[in-house]
């Protein structure tokens, strides 16, 4: 029977890059370049709440880190390293090996080595906590509070697929194997937009990553920046796989669907070419979906230019002042 220390050695200990002290001591150590700030964020994923118990462990390892890298992306921070807290209800080595593979593969792809953590037995469910550390030149982070009236509002990637996959897996929609096959990757293998976040420094006024749905998350930028916004529904980059969905479900998925892990950002209209160039350099797709307004509130116009009623849940939480 493997001990806690065997598990850590087998699955979570990798040689740390030069200059970092990784797994094996009481703390990890990493240098902070002069003139830079450390950006840090943590996300807790609970079985049954944030992932299904039978999810592919490789995908889960990927996603546990991806949702954290997405927070660094939203700040325009360059990844330095991460730590992993694991509460395991049982010792399942094939499961752990696959989880670690998914985790390390994404960590390697983003230069974000696992440099520490904690491993413990859980009485019931599986819990995963990841904390990331990144670096950003002092004062240059993309915060939520910098949007200005007249700014364009942009979103990266496509919207809606993760929400549809979640509702299919959760049994809220009738089984549709083709639709699930076309949407599941968006839910289980989100790709954090780190390169785009870095490229938007000095261009975007404010940014956020989409974890709880476009309207809700954009609402956080608007509240922090004390502004409002008007979006155009027909501009939304809807995932092609959703073409057959009925209008109400599609609208809910696109405007309210979570687990997107794309960036929503505000940038001055004078910087449209710079945004396009940044996206090209980062290999990302970006779409202009609306505009920041001085007046508080968030509206979405339909194809006729009329404000849409009954926006997806979460909308009521938006501040009107
Ligand atoms: P301590 O008792 O000082 O907390 P531990 O025995 O918990 O130390 O951990 C030993 C080493 O292994 C530490 O460097 C810790 O950061 C690392 N570690 C423990 N669990 C994990 C994990 N799940 N992922 C990465 N590193 C881990
Ligand atoms: Mg410990």
Computed Rg: 20 Å
Per DSSP E runs of 2 or more residues, the count of β-strands stands at 10
What is the first-to-last residue Cα distance?
Answer: 59 Å
**CATH topology tier name of the largest domain:** Phosphoribosyl-aminoimidazole Synthetase, Chain A, domain 2
Globular, elongated, flat, extended or rod-shaped: what is the shape? globular
Note the main sheet.
6 strands, mixed
Structural category: alpha+beta
The CATH class of the largest domain turns out to be Alpha Beta
Order of helices and strands: HEHEHEEEHHHEHEHEHEE
The overall pLDDT average reads 94
Strand order of the largest sheet: 6-8-5-9-7-10
CATH architecture of the largest domain: Alpha-Beta Complex
The helix content is 25-40%
The CATH superfamily name of the largest domain is PurM-like C-terminal domain
User: What proportion strand?
Assistant: 15-25%
Tally of helical runs:
9
Poorly predicted parts: 314-321
How many domains make up the 3D coordinates? 2
Bound molecules: adenosine-5'-diphosphate, magnesium ion
């Amino acid at each position: 029977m493997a001990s806690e220390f065997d598990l850590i050695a087998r699955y979570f200990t990798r040689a740390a890059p030069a200059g970092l002290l990784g797994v094996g001591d009481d703390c990890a150590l990493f240098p902070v370049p002069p003139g830079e700030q450390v950006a840090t964020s943590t996300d807790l994923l609970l079985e049954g709440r944030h992932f299904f118990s039978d999810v592919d462990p490789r995908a889960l390892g990927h996603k546990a880190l991806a949702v954290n890298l997405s927070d660094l992306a939203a700040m325009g921070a360059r990844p330095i390293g991460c730590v992993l807290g694991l509460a395991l209800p049982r010792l399942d080595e094939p499961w752990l090996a696959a989880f670690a593979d998914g985790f390390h593969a994404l960590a390697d792809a983003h230069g974000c080595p696992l440099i520490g953590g904690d491993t413990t037995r859980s009485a019931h469910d599986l819990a995963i906590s990841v904390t990331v550390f990144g670096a950003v030149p002092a004062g240059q982070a993309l915060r939520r509070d910098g949007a200005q009236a007249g700014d364009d509002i942009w979103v990266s990637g496509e919207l809606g697929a993760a929400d549809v996959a979640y509702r299919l897996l959760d049994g809220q929609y009738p089984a549709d194997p083709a639709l699930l096959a076309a949407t599941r990757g968006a839910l289980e293998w989100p790709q954090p937009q780190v390169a785009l976040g870095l490229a938007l420094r000095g261009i975007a006024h404010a940014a956020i990553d989409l974890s709880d749905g476009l309207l809700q998350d954009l609402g956080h930028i608007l509240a922090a920046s004390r502004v409002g916004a008007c979006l155009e529904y027909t501009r939304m980059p809807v995932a092609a796989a959703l073409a057959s969905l009925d209008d109400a479900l599609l609208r809910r998925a696109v405007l309210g669907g979570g687990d997107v892990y794309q960036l929503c950002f505000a940038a001055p209209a004078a910087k449209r070419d710079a945004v396009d160039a940044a996206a090209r350099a980062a290999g990302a797709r970006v779409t202009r979906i609306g505009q920041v307004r001085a007046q508080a509130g968030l509206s979405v116009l339909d194809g006729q230019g009329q404000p849409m009623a009954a926006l997806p849940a979460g909308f009521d939480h938006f501040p009107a002042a």
